[in-house]
Specification:
homodimer; 221 residues; mainly alpha; Arc Repressor Mutant, subunit A; Tetracycline Repressor, domain 2; 2 domains; 72% helix
Amino acid sequence: MIKDKAVRKTAKGASTARVAQQSKLKTGARRHHDTNVDQILGSAASLFAEKSFGLASIREIAARANISFPRIYYYLRNKEELLYLIAKRGMERLLVSYPKRIEGVTDPAEKLRIFIENHVRLSTGNPSETKVAVQDTGKLSEPYLSEIRALERHYSMIFRTLLVEVAQAHGNELDRARSRVLTSLFFGALNSVPTWFDHARDAGRQQPIAAEIYRLFVNAV
Amino acid sequence: MIKDKAVRKTAKGASTARVAQQSKLKTGARRHHDTNVDQILGSAASLFAEKSFGLASIREIAARANISFPRIYYYLRNKEELLYLIAKRGMERLLVSYPKRIEGVTDPAEKLRIFIENHVRLSTGNPSETKVAVQDTGKLSEPYLSEIRALERHYSMIFRTLLVEVAQAHGNELDRARSRVLTSLFFGALNSVPTWFDHARDAGRQQPIAAEIYRLFVNAV
């Protein structure tokens, strides 16, 4: 039985043995299971974004995902696990795509530009997930919270390091206090995008928005 | 009887007659009433910030404000009214202090600097109120929501106009699309400050933080 292992293993981290076992399990049944997990996470994200994490119920999430109420417990233990998985997937999506997009790039300013564009593209492309990750991650309990915060710190450190490198390329030294404040302001601005990005009005405007953020921060150091 | 008029009149806007009546009522009893309202709003803001608007109860708010549970209903109708008053007071504080601080100032860049410093000072000085106003205003129903959104739009338009004037002073024209995006990014960065400002570590650092935000935006146009 592979009963909801895809969901339950995540908090503990995947051991090598478990990864090997999983790749063997990538059969039709497994793919069907993953599709259902995707559907549940998508429905949960949209309901959390609309009604708040506190007010959305598992029953409603099951209904939106077209999965029967008893059956949804085959895939998850509780609502918090859904919040954790939404936040985790969002961070992993960012952390996996950025290194791919900078392959072969050496200029720190160009890496910064790509970092911002990648984030704006992914966050506006997954608006509910992003809104939930930004607003509700703090409601997670341990060990979920620490795991997500570690991913966030890692991601934020990529930006902070890029900023220091851009300053060096400009012949400036960026001290710790300034790089910390600029990093916090940067994520404040960046995380606000999905809250005001209007998919009707701003369709196709991801690139100029990313360019505006890039100009603000590349000229700051 | 002046029973909770201080609270109840606000949603409708104060008529001239009501204002005249209120100033006559500024007696000892009235001042005592206002002090209790302040205490209730302060307790509500800290509880909403800690536990979320949804999870904090009127009973807990009364306990924290040192007011008996039945007696708190002398001052308010329901929890939503508290959220509305917290958001309204926060916006009014900003909208009242800024014009005073720019009296006699003509340089748009200097006005921008003062706008930012005023906001950072007030928002870090009232962290719970600010956190609640940013996170929970969207949970208000009508007519509360429209009233707060109108104050926010007015405040945001002050910034947007300053940005256009700063661009003109730099000999540039700022088009509508760019001023809109820059204004949204600005408030994203600005509203994030109370979420990461650490009163132990950052004590007295309001000024350099404001200066950092100022440099980002004054150089953008």
